[in-house]
Structures are given as structure tokens and as C-alpha cells.
Amino acid sequence: MSTLPTYRWHLAPEGLATRRQLRALGLRPGGQDVVAEVHRPRRRRAPLVAYLYRIDCARPVRPMTAARRTALAAAMRARRTCPNCLVDVGYCIPRSLGMCVTCHDTPEGARPAFQGPAGHPPFTPEGA
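Below the sequence we write its predicted C-alpha cells.
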């Protein structure tokens, strides 16, 4: 069984980078295998591990197309839309609540059906 070379924090050789460092350079791993690990020690816990990739084998980041931008905007709109009042509340709905904070704080019987509760504008369909 072969293991990857392991380096301590800030002691990795030149020419290797993490995914985040590659992204900052406008690159992506591009299907290459991990070549090494960096371990960051922590007190009383397991060390943090970051995987390293070769910079010379990295590929440029794919450009954002109009279709990808549209799909990303739709996904973010869905994350901001409360399933209870159907209003885009302007922030990502907390998964722990499953609804916007206003709906969560409003008593169950006081919530109007498919209209924004106090503090929200009323729901209007996109086609109207």
C-alpha cells in the first residue's frame, strides 16, 4: 500500500497547491490525482488535512456560460424562496428551520395561506 507524501503546515514544496489556491490562480485540478497532503496540527483534535495538486498539470477554469449563470441564479432563487409563504426573502432559508424566520416566528394558525405574513410583501406569480 503506498501512501501520499505528507508535509507540515506551510512546508509544502513549490509547485503544489490546494484546490483553493488553484482557484485563486484561475486553475482547477482537471482530473489529476492528489499528489501530497498538508497537515495542520490542532490542539486536542485531529489535524486538518488539505490535499495538494501539481500546478503544472492543472487546467484553466471553465468560463461561466449564460446557461450555467441562469441555472445558478434559479438555484439561488429557490434557496431564498420560503416554501411556506412563497416569497423570495433575500437570504438563504435556514435548513434547520425549513422556512423563513418570519414564518417560523409566526404562530401556525396566524399564517395566511400563500400570502406573505407580516413583514413580507404579498406573493405574486412570475407570469402575472
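The CA atoms of residues 31 and 58 lie 8 Å apart.
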